């Protein structure tokens, strides 16, 4: 009986020893499993983070591309508007100058016939008198009147919008017989793209210094900074 108890005792100790040897192996394996799971989670987290960064970068690139595309579309639209406006101006003034040239040709032919008659009749003193229909001042006045009418046909709100750029007490009040005055005519030419003072002076029969003085005086009446005034005028829309 004692022998059996001893055997049982020693068998239990043997089992404990076996278990004691196996437990570290099991615990080690469990730790390895946990470590592998952690590594896997870390890898997944890193992948998700990288994917998130990539998505954010892609979204930023897409947004930048959309903004650039919108800017390009706006630029194209603005260019098309300017081209349309330029074509309208070109068509109107080509027709105007065609008619104007036709009238001048008729007047030159009339002058030629008048001179020939005077020469044939030997009325040389009469050659000193220019026919009334060829008066230079009248021709220039007629030129301005036609220019003003065509310009306001293209920019019907020009006077009102130009005045809106001036201080209330400095706004232009036209006389009953005026369509545009010199100030408005100068900036009408600028609005048409003629910025050269010499060309403006030549058209209006003024000196370059006079044109410069007019422009400086008007800018001094502006309700906006003087260096922005010309650009504001250029933004006045045609019909």
Q: Overview of this structure, please?
A:
By secondary structure, the chain is mainly alpha-helical. The chain has a domain at 135-239. 77% of the residues lie in helices and 0% in strands. The protein is built from 7 helices and no strands. The longest helix has 119 residues, at 2-120. The chain is rod-shaped and about 150 Å long. The termini are far apart. Mean pLDDT is 80; it is low at 1-10.
Structure, briefly:
The chain is an all-alpha fold and 239 residues long. The protein is 77% helix and 0% strand.
How many helices? The count is 7
What percent strand? Answer: under 5%
What's the alpha carbon Rg, rounded to whole Å? 46 Å
Helix content: over 70%
Mean pLDDT: 80
Question: Could you name the ranges where pLDDT drops below 50 across 5 or more consecutive residues?
Answer: 1-10
Topology, number of strands: 0
Order of helices and strands: HHHHHHH
Please give the oligomerization state of what you see: single chain
């Amino acid at each position: 009986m004692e022998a059996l108890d001893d055997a049982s005792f020693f068998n239990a100790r043997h089992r404990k020893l076996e278990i004691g040897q196996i437990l570290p192996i099991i615990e080690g394996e469990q730790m390895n499993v946990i470590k592998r799971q952690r590594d896997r989670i870390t890898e997944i987290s890193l992948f998700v983070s990288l994917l998130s960064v990539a998505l954010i970068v892609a979204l930023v690139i897409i947004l930048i591309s959309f903004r650039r595309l919108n800017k390009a579309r706006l630029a194209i639209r603005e260019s098309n508007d300017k081209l349309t406006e330029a074509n309208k101006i070109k068509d109107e003034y080509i027709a105007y100058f065609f008619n104007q040239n036709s009238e001048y040709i008729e007047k030159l032919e009339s002058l030629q016939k008048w001179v020939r008659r005077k020469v044939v009749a030997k009325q040389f003193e009469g050659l000193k008198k220019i026919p009334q229909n060829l008066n230079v001042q009248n021709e220039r006045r007629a030129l301005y009147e036609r220019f003003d009418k065509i310009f306001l046909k293209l920019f019907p709100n020009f006077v009102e919008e130009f005045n809106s750029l001036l201080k209330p007490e400095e706004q232009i009040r036209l006389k009953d017989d005026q369509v545009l005055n010199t100030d408005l005519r100068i900036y009408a030419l600028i609005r048409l793209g003629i910025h050269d003072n010499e060309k403006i002076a030549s058209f209006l029969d003024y000196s370059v210094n006079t044109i410069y003085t007019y422009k400086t005086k008007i800018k001094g009446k502006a309700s906006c900074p003087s260096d922005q005034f010309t650009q504001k005028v250029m933004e006045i829309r045609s019909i």
